[in-house]
Amino acid sequence: MRIVLAEDGALLREGLAGLLERFGHQVTAVADADALVETVERSCPDVVVTDVRMPPKFVDEGLRVAVYLRERYPGLGVLALSQYVAKSYASTLLDSGNGAGVGYLLKERVGDVTEFLDAVDRVAAGETVIDPEVVRQLLQLREDPLRALTPREREVLALMAEGRSNAAVGRKLLITEAAVSKHIASILAKLKLSPSGDRNRRVLAVLAYLRG
């Protein structure tokens, strides 16, 4: 199997390349994101194994390139390695290609040789490999649509859920009906409930409250 390995740390890069080669794989190792793109375009590998943080900024260059390569080469298997979960691009990477032939492992798993090699093989075979800790963190990072609401807006929404009119909400909270209308407009905007002729935004806002 042809593998392109992208890792800026020399010791880890040489160690992983040697490990993969011992198990019969043809490995090309590179140290930065630009070299990763160039090598993939030149050698058409079966799998890319890439670090997330790479030169020049050491933020998420490796993951950005992985997403780009998945878009350009849909059949390319990509296994991302990281010391942490980069939530925005991790989700995009795992959604690419309908989630087939993609993986995201935390670097601590690399210490388990059998688990690492199995992950590479499974990604090459079109399977999805996700570190259980990555799953846990991504679930925690899912945005609660009510999180953006202020305490007062939550109170207004709770009373809306009870079926109270704007006037009744105002009497309960000791505020004017105009203030209630202003709070409701803010709630609908924060819940991204845009005006639509076939949708009752007030009902949808209440449903969001009940689900939360």
TrEMBL record:
UniProt KW Zinc keyword:
no
Q: Does the keyword DNA-binding apply?
A: yes
Q: Which domain of life is it from?
A: Bacteria
Domain spans labelled HTH luxR-type: 142-212
Modification 4-aspartylphosphate, positions: 51
Q: Which residues form the Response regulatory domain?
A: 2-122
Query: Matching InterPro entries, A to Z?
Result: CheY-like_superfamily (IPR011006), NreC/VraR/RcsB-like_REC (IPR058245), Sig_transdc_resp-reg_C-effctor (IPR016032), Sig_transdc_resp-reg_receiver (IPR001789), Tscrpt_reg_LuxR_C (IPR000792), WalR-like (IPR039420), WH-like_DNA-bd_sf (IPR036388)
Q: By its UniProt entry, which SMART domains does this protein fall under?
A: HTH_LUXR, REC
Ordered alphabetically, the record's keywords are: DNA-binding, Phosphoprotein, Transcription, Transcription regulation
- Database matches in Pfam families: GerE, Response_reg
Q: What is this protein called?
A: Response regulator transcription factor
Q: Which organism is this protein's natural source?
A: Amycolatopsis minnesotensis
